[in-house]
Every structure is written in C-alpha cells, then in structure tokens.
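This part of the workshop introduces the protein records we will be handling. An example says more than a description, so a record of this kind follows:
>
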Amino acid sequence: MEPVLKSPCDEQHPQQAEDFHGNVEQSSKLSAGVKKDIEKLYEAVPQLVNVFKIKEKIGEGTFSSVYLATAQLQTGYEEKIALKHLIPTSHPLRIAAELQCLTVAGGQDNVMGVKYCFRKNDHVVIVMPYLEHESFLDILNSLSFEEVREYMFNLFKALRRIHHFGIVHRDVKPSNFLYNRQLKKYALVDFGLAQGTPDTKIELLKTAHSEDQQRSCLQTNPVVALGNGVSVTAPEQIAQQSASKAADRRSSSLSKVQMKQGRGGKVLSLFY
C-alpha cells in the first residue's frame, strides 16, 4: 500500500519545518553526527518533511548515504522506507542511469525496486522499500550449507534478472545483497557503478559508458603523437569540443527524465 503523500511539491508549513528538528532531537539513540546529517538532509530536500520521518542512518558509502524512514499509510500504519541520498557531486547522468536500472529491472527476482525520487537543486533522494537484514559478517560463521546454497541461488537469480536487461552491476558484495535470514528475503541494491553490455536495454547506461570512455581517453592520453618520437600537448579546443559533444549527449539522455517542478523542489520520475 502506498504512503499518503501531501504532495512533495507543496510549500512547507512553518510548524512542519520546526517538527523535523524536534523529531531528530527526541531520538536519544542517535549520535550527534547522525542527527546533524539528518537535519542537513531535511534542509537540503525540504519536501521530505511532508512525507517521511527519518529515524536513523543505516549506511554510508563514497557516493551516498542511506537512511531508515517511515511513511504514513492510509490505514494509519507506518511503513518503513529506505532513503538513499546521493552526494551532490554525483554525475547527473549516473544518477539517472541508476534510477533507470531500478525502474526497469527492479522490483522482481530479488532486485531492489524504487518507489519515488525527490530532487532539490543538486540533491537527489531515491526512495526504496526497506528490507530489514542481517550483517553478513555477523552470521557468516553460523550459516549452514543449505543456507549458503539458498543465498547463492537467490543471488544468481538477481544477477540473471539484471543481465537480461544488459546491466553489469560491477559491485556485487555481501553489503549490496541484503539478506533477511528469518523471512528468507533478498535484495540486490546499489547500481551506482553499473555499466551496460553492448546490447543493454538501459539507454542511459549506453550514454554513461561512452562518456566514461571519453573522459578516460582524455585523462590517459594528454598528448598527441606525431611520429618520429615527437609529441605535442593536445590542443585545448579538442577537449572543449569533446566536452561540448558530451554535454549534448547528456542533455539528450536526460530528456528521458521528467522533472516535475514544485515550490518545494522537484520530483523525478522516469518515463519511456
């Protein structure tokens, strides 16, 4: 059942703006650093205040932080939600490609899906179902042979799903394959480093891969060989032309991402 959204694009009421500070301060279990991070996230993406109560930070990596939050349902029940906040320096095309992976391949066969996505300026928050899971290191020594076999079977099931769409995850590890031991549920997460095969069905991965190759070429080949041992620095205009072409392709690719403007920010939704 979907959360009741008071329109993420609606303007905040003064009381709501004050509430999130109070909610953060009331949790004695949170460290000062986590409380500050949650407050910063509310301030960076203020439309979250109308929808979610952020409870704690449950993960942090090089490119993102993940938070546990709750959303109010029509029945009055609070549904647990995972909020992935991508760092502002993440390339827009990479963010859009990750969203497209989740939207196209996610939600089936142990691949994490996506519910919503919020954007305000250069801050993006991906909203996903929350799967309570164990730390793999904590249970590693207690796993039976049967459990390991089931774990691997379900991992391969998820990989078969994404490979069907031409997605290469490139970061498969225990922390990115969530496992709920009690419920026997699994979820492959984090497509931030994903690349596409030559026949990938994820259009934005094609563009992201070509741009990565171009940047790599410019970084690893700063000189142009003329023969007979003579080389000169590549003209600045070559780099400018390459950047211009990349920007044109990025603009074309990001046209697949619909931005719904509102007073409180923007909500992203993919369409094909």
Helices lie at 14-26, 32-44, 92-105, 136-139, 145-164, 203-220, 236-254. DSSP finds seven helices and 13 strands in the chain. Residues 132-257 form one domain. Confidence is low (pLDDT under 50) at residues 1-18, 222-243, 250-267.
